[in-house]
Design a protein that fits this description.
The structure is a homotrimer. The first copy, chain A, has about 400 residues and is an alpha+beta fold. Chain A has ten helices and 16 strands. Chain A folds into two domains: about 110 residues, Rieske Iron-sulfur Protein; about 250 residues, Naphthalene 1,2-dioxygenase Alpha Subunit, Chain A, domain 1, CATH 3.90.380. The first copy, chain A, has a seven-stranded antiparallel β-sheet with strand order 1-10-9-4-3-2-5. The first copy, chain A, has a six-stranded antiparallel β-sheet with strand order 11-16-15-14-13-12, with helices on both faces. The longest helix of chain A is centred in the last third of the chain and has 21 residues. Chain A starts with a helix and ends with a helix. The relative contact order of chain A is 0.16. Chains in contact: A-B, A-C, B-C. At the A-B interface, α5 and α9 of A face loops of B.
Chain lengths: ~400, ~400, ~400
């Protein structure tokens, strides 16, 4: 049986409107297939331009076993390469991040420019054609300070994503931000389990006591009382009066989650701006600001900018800080998550912001989610697991995620 | 090649009267096949009714990756369920044991009665049929306080087992016992290696210095001197004079192990009562009693009740305490063993019994066995391993185990 | 597809003069195939006769999962056996090394003579044929104190290796040495990565600052200045004047590595003697002697004897000590390396030699190599890895290794 036929038969076991069958979380053949069809074929969020400010600055990461390095080259361009030598494959940069003048392979000192050209390979015979031995280049797109890379030789069009994301993200000015904190997690769950968790707030009420106080995500469908509707309308009215930045529209004016992804139209990117609850200026533990205003914001009343791209990125940006989650598959049952906190580039730790005020809100929320993901994964291990129905009221986005996912496979 | 054909070809490599070939301990396809044909098709010993005394009391365990929960429901019935939510498969109970009023899934608060019915799933759309979304139920049989479960929709008949076990086990009154101690082990060996170890006492003489002093198991076939025969006869005579409880017969009057299993008749359950050596009232380090008398016993001279069921249970019960071993496969090369010490429910630790007197005898004996099992498994890893002949005198039960096992496969 | 066809198709993906494709370092089918075609079919270096000086002395090791024991028997012969009982496969000797009077299986006390004969199996039925149940014997060859074993029933001819190695190795007198130190390593790399590292000194210049001072290995092809040539000639001239031991010829009179293996003629063994740089009497940190003279040497000016056999042995012997590396595969991505330091058998630690003078030179060099190997392996994990060209000047031996390797497979 060809692998395509095999995948089609697997997909046929899925029942519309229900969770995915067990094999989708346990089958190694499918996992390898996903790597090819999704992870090596999409735009992958890598990090922020402010992480590679100067020529030679780099950071590294790994998609399953594919080692990647993102670097700012000698012409101020952000570039991305497979982080391996073209001689015998040795890992070039071992550090998470750093700065260098050129890529020098530690094994035999093959030397590549910051633009990936092989400039020296002393010890090789003379008729070596250096021009054929440059680093393997990845496609890169920059959008409002976000760096996306693609391992595909012919990635999908990026422009539609840019057109949607740019006006929404512009005011936050990620390119004038700096990293305040990074926390890396290993989640013992398939990457899809993590997305499924992210795509519904049905679980929030009990599991995210901090988060639900600040947001209206849980108020959808039959959940919404008149009192809540009034609270939401008041927040909307109060917020918009004060807004005067580029792209200052509340795109999502209801409770609940904005619809994403749009499986039927293969749309893998989205942005929305929502209001915060009364008393909340920022997604922090007490709702107070935890850092100086970012970007074009002139006051705190800007709600929350939310960005997402599949298969690996979401972001919540308050007036004063931005929190980003980047997912990377590290095995069939292992997902690496990096959470990045950004603040204004001029903000000084200790005086302008305190880490113990900045990070707890999303650190707690993230860790609450990872625990749920691991527990879900453990249960799905059971051979008795049968996919249950998804709530049409609270899990429409999870259903959309599954439909998007299946469209990528077939 | 179909998996049935594959298994048949594997079985054909086994030579009657010899140990099993290497593939039986290393082949993942076979291991998965065993899980289906044996572990998800048999009666599995789970624990004791005294572990779930009150409504809502539960304990959990895992057969390979199948999470199970045993609980006493609102009508005082012992029930067993797959320990996963019928919504998206999340593990329901994470603890080893505890007590609850209802199953509440931590993810989205779907709530199930103690009898497994879905009673609440707020947030789901209206036309959900709750009656189809109850927990996945397992068959349960209780026999003299022992709880057996089966993952099979149509498990084998339990009544023959009950008919044999009940009269033998009755006097011990497990249902009026309590747990004094539980020790959990992870044995780096295939589950069959652990059974093979259990089914012969050929290894006892050197490896179990404590055990052999108290029992006549090692005296079989050509091993038995006249002096030993006399000792055995004396113990038999002395014991029976004093016996006056229900089922008080010595069923196994010779040295050596009682025959088990009966492969030719597919009999997977057995019980016997044996005498102890002179000076032994209990299977303890010095032979003295280590707890108050259990069940219907009026004096200590009751020998040892022994129970076994395949594929995962054996028990040695003295006049004053009962020691049970429960095996569970946790991987091709990993077996989880739980050893449970029971005493009379009224016995008080510190006054009526001391753990350091109660547990050493079987803790030592068990750990001696696990070490042998791991060493056997390591050797069988060698590609040079060829199954050797089994002793007709000392390994007849091991041979019977192998024949029973193969009958389950084909 | 048969496994032979599969391997042939894999081999066809290799391009002459280039590194091996990714699958050669990641494919489990190929790894198993290598175990059969190479590791269970070749002469494997096990250790030294001086490690089993007295009758009953033994040491153990494992080739993938095959447990081996080497022992000196009652007739002073060095023997090798599969380290498993012929009854039920239990590992016989669990220790790395030791001494015993007979093999006694800990499980059921089956007892084998030091020559591997089953001498006792009390408890077995009478018609057991003990002569058929001796330990599984390996072929053994001793050559100048080096012990080689083969798991093959019909190993390749050893005599050509002996003819070449004996005259070169004789003067070192390994059989009159003793072990001064053993360090065991686990390298997270396929065994071929370790050999590829060993077969070129292209990486030495930057990575082995200690090693390159003492040797002329890096001076090959376009790398060699007139000044270096003069230094080499001076060392050659100075050395040879002083040499008066058996086999005292400098076999390798150029810079760079001696050619090995000879893939076209299936030659898996080699020996050479090279000179050391001026100021170096021994491969030590400061070039000074670190132990009393070994073997037939009458002064320190003997250069370095170098021995190698595929698939698992290399040795550098100075006038005063000998350093041996033994490789063993322990998994697709795991290689065990043992480094053994020998000195004259009469040398006393503390007075005649100090471990902190003896071991650093090769301990550092080895550990530098293992780190490079692990880094190479990590990079090769990338699906973007494409084998690069091998230097005709600096990697001719690596190319020869690959050609030798492929000849073994097909």
């Amino acid at each position: 049986m060809s692998s395509t036929t095999y995948i089609k038969e697997l997909v046929a076991t899925h029942r519309q409107g229900y969770a995915l069958p067990r094999a989708f979380y346990h089958d190694r053949v499918l996992y390898e297939y996903e790597l090819g069809k999704i992870w090596r074929n999409s735009w992958i969020f890598a990090g922020f331009t402010c992480q590679v400010q100067k020529s030679g600055d780099f950071f590294t990461f790994t998609i399953d076993t594919d080692a990647i390095v993102v670097i700012r080259d000698g012409e101020e361009q952000v570039r991305a390469f497979h982080n391996i030598c073209t001689h015998r494959g040795t890992l070039l940069c071992q550090e998470d991040e750093g700065s260098m003048r050129a890529f020098v392979c530690p094994y035999h000192q093959w030397t590549f420019s910051l633009g990936g050209d092989l400039v020296s390979c002393i010890g090789m015979h003379e008729d070596i054609d250096k021009s054929e031995l440059g680093l393997h280049t990845l496609h890169v797109e920059i959008c409002e300070g976000l760096i996306f890379v693609s391992l595909s030789p012919s990635p999908p069009a990026f422009e539609p994503a840019r057109e949607l994301l740019t006006p929404m993200a512009k005011a936050q000015k990620f390119e004038e931000a700096k990293v305040a904190c990074i926390i890396d997690y290993e989640i013992l769950a398939n990457w899809k389990v993590v997305w499924e968790n992210n795509r519904e707030c049905y679980h929030c009420n009990v599991n995210h006591p901090q988060y639900i106080k600040s947001n209206f995500d849980i108020y959808e469908g039959n959940n919404v009382s008149t009192r809540i509707q009034e609270r939401l309308q008041k927040s909307l009215a109060r917020s918009e009066v004060a807004w005067d930045f580029e792209g200052s529209t509340i795109s999502h004016r209801e409770g609940g989650l904005a619809a994403f992804p749009d499986a039927d139209n293969d749309i893998w990117y989205s942005a929305s701006r929502t209001v915060l609850s009364e008393g909340y200026e920022s997604e922090s533990m007490d709702g107070k600001r935890v850092a100086p205003l970012m970007g074009e914001y002139k006051n705190a009343s800007v709600g929350v900018l939310r960005l997402r791209t599949l298969p690996n990125f979401w972001n919540h940006s308050s007036c004063d800080h931005a929190v980003t989650t980047r997912l990377l598959p590290a095995g069939l049952h292992l997902t690496k998550a990096r959470v990045i906190w950004l603040v204004h580039e001029d903000a000084q730790v200790g005086t302008d912001y305190q880490l113990d005020k900045l990070t707890p809100f999303w650190q707690l929320t993230s860790e609450q989610d990872w625990e749920l993901c691991e527990r879900a994964q453990r249960g799905i291990h059971s051979t008795a697991y049968r996919p249950g129905p998804l709530s049409k009221i609270r899990e429409y986005n999870l259903d959309a995620f599954i439909r998007w996912y299946i469209r990528q496979l077939v």
